[in-house]
Amino acid sequence: MTSTKTRRRIVPAASENGDTADKQDQLLLSAAICNGEDLGSFVRKAFASGKPETLLHHLKHFTKSKESEIEDVCRAHYQDFIVAVDDLRSLLSDVDSLKSSLSNSNNKLQNVAVPLLTSLDAYVEAKNKCSNIALAINSLNTEEVSKEFGDWLVEIRIVSRNLGQLAIGQASAARQREEELRIKQRQAEEQSRLSLRDCVYALEEEEDDEIDGVVDGSNGVNGISGFDLTPLYRAYHIHQTLGLEDRFKQYYFENRKLQLTSDFQVSSMTPFLESHQTFFAQIAGFFIVEDRVLRTGGGLISKMEVENLWDTAVSKMCSVLEDQFSRMQTANHLLLIKDYVSLLGVTLRRFGYPIDALLDVLSKHRDKYHELLLSDCRKQFAEALAADKFEQMYMKKEYEYSMNVLSFQIQTSNIMPAFPFVAPFSSTVPDCCRIVRSFIEDSVSFMSYGGQLEFFDVVKKYLDRLLTEVLDGALLKVINSSIGGVTQAMQMAANMAVFERACDFFFRHAAQLSGIPLRIAERGRRQFPLIKARDAAEETLSGLLKQKVDGFLSLIENVNWMADDPPQGGNEYANEVIIFLETLVSTAQQVLPVQVLKRVLQDVLAHISEMIVGALHGESVKRFNINAIMGLDVDVRLLESFAENQAPLLSEAEANQLKSGLAESRQMVNLLLSNHPENFLNPVIRERSYNALDYRKVVAISEKLRDQSDRLFGSFGTRGAKQNPKKKSLDALIKRLKDVN
């Protein structure tokens, strides 16, 4: 340190010997070095001025000045430095001691810890192995559960179909029991209506254990053998444990949605009539399963997801039904599918699924179904009528009577007849009645369980069409084309009378099947729907009988119109007609109802009366006398007597009505025999006694009347003889009537 101080004292101060410029350069150089600036400019300047020594001198001077400062600092902290060195030496001694102690401790620790470390390494290794084994076991379980779940997805489709078939079958059985109860109720009502015996009827309610089992899962495994949700819920639980709950929910929903989409496929290789039950049962089972999963699955599927699936299913089923119904041309096929769809609706409605859209599709095709049904019935009527020989049915046994008569309530008495029994109708009646009854039952079956509670008016409308359009038309066609004789025409007329009773049964039957009380259904009197066929049948019978009568009336040509004496016992034609009519009545009363026979006889008698008057009015009779008219009077009396003799068969009033068919001939004969024929001109008398006469015929016929004493009675008289008062009255009548004309 002394040498350093001496050395600093002998160093000359360069700045004191330099000039002012050198000092300034030296200060700038020092400042640049202190500031860390680039010294290149100073170097270039030194070499440019040719004085690099000056620069070196300045740098050395700067170095010495800094050394001086360092020395000053060192002198200021010298004592502290000495103390620090001493402390450091002491610390080094302590470090050596500590190092030796640590080394000893480390040796001891190593000796003690080596066994422990070995055990720890073994423990860590064992723990890792256990963890890996547990992970492997969990992985293996997730591979097993997934496989079990996949198998369940495959199996549940088969189970769903069986479940759907079972549930729909149970709904069908329940419906059948309801129908049986209704039948018992209808029978009781009918027996009460007929007052056959006092009836006590009570509905018996039965427990529907099977369907409850399907819903509640109390019958077998969830209501059906194999309907087991355990694999599904096990897989769901494991995925929840692994934190994959949402993923599994999505996986389940997507797979079930794919299965439902697959269930929608309708095979083009199999007729829908054969596959429709499997198709709808599969869908029904699917949603029965989903309902159970929704209620017991702990949130595996949401209500909204099930509703969305159902909406999709309803849309697809409606589309399939629309397509299949549009192709069908057989009413029975459409009915079979409709019935199964309605059972599907009943089944799924128990689980809370809305079925209105399905019912709307069924209602939409109501008209098409009935049109097909009417078409089928038209063919069946034609076949039944073509097979009929129009002969009275012969029944040997009671069951035949029950099947052909009692089942349609067309009997005229509640007393069972003796057998063998000859019915007043031919096979057409029961055959057509069976067709109509089947139509009613099919119509009610289609309308039932279709969402419409009161449908009797609809059934009645189509029943009216069946009777007035189809059956009436078929009968008219046969009457106008196939009836070739009196026997067949008589049988057809008799059939129509029986049909009139049957039609009352048809509407009562339709009302009963529709759940309408008979007292309501029987209100009001319906017009006979087969009135056209009935009138045509009676007109045909009357026409054929008139043709027969005309053959006998042709004998009127043998009448002596200018007879000297009145014929005794009537003219020949009249007696022949009477014999024919009596034979006709004897035969017809075995077949024809009294009212039909009365109408036909009245029409025939009116025709006979018209023919008698027509003979007087016709060109073939040029003149006649009073004796001929008296003979016609006897003829008319014979016919009137025939009408009066029918009183035991008819009634006195009806016999008089039958007699009124001879009004024209009776009034014409009475007028020609009257002593005061001009009374015809009196409106009161004419309305009372001659209302059936045409005044033009009266004039033409009256002019033909001749008298024995005056051959041209009313035109030329015997000269000088007193004029006959009757002649005078008749002339006045003719003159007045001609004036009116």
UniProtKB/TrEMBL annotation:
Record's keyword annotation contains Transport: yes
Coiled-coil intervals, chain numbering: none
Record's GO cellular component terms: cytosol; exocyst; membrane
Transmembrane intervals: none
Keywords (A to Z) from UniProt: Cytoplasm, Exocytosis, Transport
Pfam families associated with the record: EXOC6_Sec15_N, Sec15_C
Locations listed in the record: Cytoplasm, Cytosol
Segments forming domain Exocyst complex component EXOC6/Sec15 N-terminal: 58-141
InterPro entries tied to this protein: EXOC6/Sec15, EXOC6/Sec15_C, EXOC6/Sec15_C_dom1, EXOC6_Sec15_N, EXOC6PINT-1/Sec15/Tip20_C_dom2
Claim: Membrane is one of the keywords in the record: no
Domain Exocyst complex subunit EXOC6/Sec15 C-terminal: 358-704
GO biological process terms on file: acceptance of pollen; Golgi to plasma membrane transport; intracellular protein transport; pollen germination; pollen tube growth; vesicle tethering involved in exocytosis
Top-level taxon of the source organism: Eukaryota
Family that this chain belongs to: Belongs to the SEC15 family.
PANTHER family hit by this protein: EXOCYST COMPLEX COMPONENT SEC15B, SEC15
Job description of the protein: Component of the exocyst complex involved in the docking of exocytic vesicles with fusion sites on the plasma membrane during regulated or polarized secretion. Involved in polarized cell growth and organ morphogenesis. During cytokinesis, involved in cell plate initiation, cell plate maturation and formation of new primary cell wall.
Entry protein name: Exocyst complex component
Species name: Sesamum calycinum
